[in-house]
Amino acid sequence: MHFHYALFAEILHDLANTVSSLPASDLAHRAVLRDAAQALYSALQVSDQGSGDETSSLTAKEEVQFLHIME
Questions:
Q1: Dist. CA 9–CA 32, nearest whole Å
Q2: Residue 60: pLDDT above 60?
Q3: Where are the alpha helices (DSSP H) in the chain?
Q4: pLDDT tier at 51 (50, 70, 90 boundaries)?
Q5: CA-to-CA distance for 66 and 40, rounded, in angstroms?
Q6: What are the residue boundaries of the structural domains of the chain, listed by start?
Q7: How many CB atoms lie under 10 A from the CB of residue 66?
């Protein structure tokens, strides 16, 4: 499977521009989107441990959330 990162980034930007239109009363969807964005952000962080390996600082819960996002 090929993942088109530039297209995904564009979708994320579009989502960020439109998420403000979610009603304030829609706390459940806001929380889910916020948690998913945080999991993605965490997954993209590279931990520099001097070994040259790129590893993320995801917790087990964040990794599961990220995998659900990618489905």
A1: 19
A2: yes
A3: 5-18, 27-44, 60-70
A4: very low
A5: 6
A6: 29-46+54-71
A7: 19
10 Å Cβ neighbour count for 51?
Answer: 8
Tokens of 2: 């090929």
Nearest residue to 42 via CA among 59, 28, 26, 54: 59
pTM of the predicted model as reported, rounded to 2 decimal places: 0.55
Q: Residue 5 CA to chain centroid, in angstroms?
A: 13
Identity of the amino acid at 65:
Q
The token duo for 71 is 């489905």
* First CA to last CA distance, the chain: 12
